Amino acid sequence: MRILIVDDSKFVRQILINILETGGHTVCGEAVTGAEAVAKYTELKPDLVTMDVIMPDMSGVDAVKEIKKIDSSAKIVVISAMGQQPVVAELLKEGALDYIVKPFQPARVLESIDKLIDK
Questions:
Q1: For domain 2-117, is the CATH number 3.40.50.2300?
Q2: What is the pTM of this model?
Q3: What are the φ/ψ torsions at residue 9 (nearest 5 degrees)?
Q4: Domain residue ranges in the chain
Q5: Which residues contact 74 (CB under 8 A, 6 or more apart)?
Q6: CA distance between the termini of the chain
Q7: Which helix (H) or strand (E) element contains residue 29?
Q8: Which residue of 3, 37, 42, 90 has the fewest C-beta atoms within 10 A of its own C-beta?
Q9: Longest dimension (CA), the chain
């Protein structure tokens, strides 16, 4: 599965790359902001996106809305810190398929991705 990682933290992106590649997935791109996520989604057409919530210039909520306008079947998994539950609920309403709470366990990330591969 080709995955686009969206997070403003290089540290988090690197951890996700390691987890996903170890799990047999391909990271086809990274984005640091919501606007960059939308542009990269259009350019790369990944199979799945991991989306942070709080980012510079465009929030994860707005990025999910924009990506869903481009591709209503986009598979998006939100990865967010605790305390963002109302935002996560909105993201799920907007079309995100799952959410993972930071700090996350590698097994939880792979479980979510593998579940969505089967959809």
A1: yes
A2: 0.94
A3: -95, 115
A4: 2-117
A5: 41, 49, 67, 68, 95
A6: 13
A7: strand 26-31
A8: 42
A9: 33
